[in-house]
Design brief:
Elements (H helix, E strand, L loop, with lengths): L1 H6 L2 H31 L6 H27 L5 H37 L8 H31 L2 H12 L1 H11 L1 H16 L7 E4 L2 E8 L3 E6 L4 E5 H6 L3 E2 L7 E9 L5 H14 L3 E13 L4 E9 L2 H22 L44
Antiparallel strand pairs: 1-2, 1-5, 2-3, 3-4, 6-8, 7-8
Amino acid sequence: MDRILANIDTALLARWALPLLAALLLGFIARQSLLALARRTRRSQSLRAALLRAFAMPAAVALPLLFLTIALARTPLGPRDLSIARHAIGIGLIACLTGLGLRLVSVAERAILRQYPLDIADNLLARRIQTQTRVLARVAMGGLLCLGLASVLMTFPTVRQLGATLLASAGVLGIVAGIAAKPVFGNLIAGLQIALAQPIRLDDVVIVEGEWGRIEEITSTYVVVRVWDERRMVVPLVWFIENPFQNWTRSSAQLIGSAFLWLDYHTPMEALRAELQRICDTDPRWDGRVCLAQVTDTDDRSMQVRCLVSAGNSGDAFDLRCAVRERLIDFLRREHPQSLPVLRANMAAPPSRANAPASAEPDLPSSPRAEDGAEIPGG
C-alpha cells in the first residue's frame, strides 16, 4: 500500500482533482439552489414565479456543464480527449437551451390562456385568443425542436459534409423531400392559416361530415371535434382549409331554431301565436329576439306551421325547440283538439230496401214489346 502511494504523482493528481472537484462542488451548489428556488415558487401562479421555474431546470443542468468545461481546460487532458469532452458538453448545452425555449413558450401560452378563460357567457374574444395562442405555441415548439435537433447534428463533421452534399444536389432531393413531406408541411401551413384567419376556434359549434359537435382541441396536425354523444372525431387541419363546413358560432353564439307542426285547417292561429309567446316568455332559454309562428306550407289534408324561436347558444336553441313542440302539442290537445290532423271520410249511405215498395222493379232497357212477339207498328 505504501509502495502504491509512493508511486502516485501528487502534483498530477492535484492538477486533475482540484479543477474537477471545484467544478462539481460549484455545479452541485448551483443546482441545489436553483431547484430550491423552483420548489419555493411552485404554488405561486404569478408570471415571475412561472419564469423562475422555467429557467430553474435548464439552468440547473447548464451551469454544472459550464463549470465542467472550465475545469477540463485546466486539466492535463489531451487535445483529442478534450475535444470529445467539449463536444459532449456542447450537445448538453444545446439540449438545455432547447428545453429552456420550450419552457418559455409554455409559460407564455399558459399566461395568455389564464387571462382569457372560456367559462364565461360571451367568450368569443377568449376563443379567438386561445385558438391563436395554442396553434402558434405548437408551431413554435415544433420549430424549436427542429432547430435544436439540427444544431446537434451539425456539430458532427460527417453530418456537415452530408449537408453540403445535399445542398449541392438540392434540386432532385428537394422535389423528393417536398413530395414526401407534403402532409406534414400541409398541416403546418394549415395550422398557421387557422391561427391567423380563424375559420374555427376552440369551443366552436361545427357540423363536420354531418356530425354536430364542438371543437375540443387544435394541435399542430389535427383537430379534435367532440360530438354530441361524447364521441371524438379526429380531423386533419388541412380538411378545414379544403372542405366546406358549418360553423354555428363564427361571429356569435346566438341562433334561431325552428319547430314544425302539421295541423288541421281548423287551427286558430291567433291562439297558437299567443301560446307560443307565453311559452317563450316563461322559458329562460329564450333570449327575447325572435318568437314567431307562420303557415309555411299546405297540402290536401293539413297545413305546416313553422315556429321560430331564438336562444343564446346552440344547446339552448335545441332544448327550446323541443320544449316548444311539446308544449304546443299539449296546448292544442287540451284547448283545441280539432286542430290536430285527422283523416276524414265522407261516405253516402245507400237507400234502405225496407222503405222501398214491394212491387218496385228497376227499369231495364229493352226493345218495345219485342219479348212477347207483338206486331211492331209499321212493320
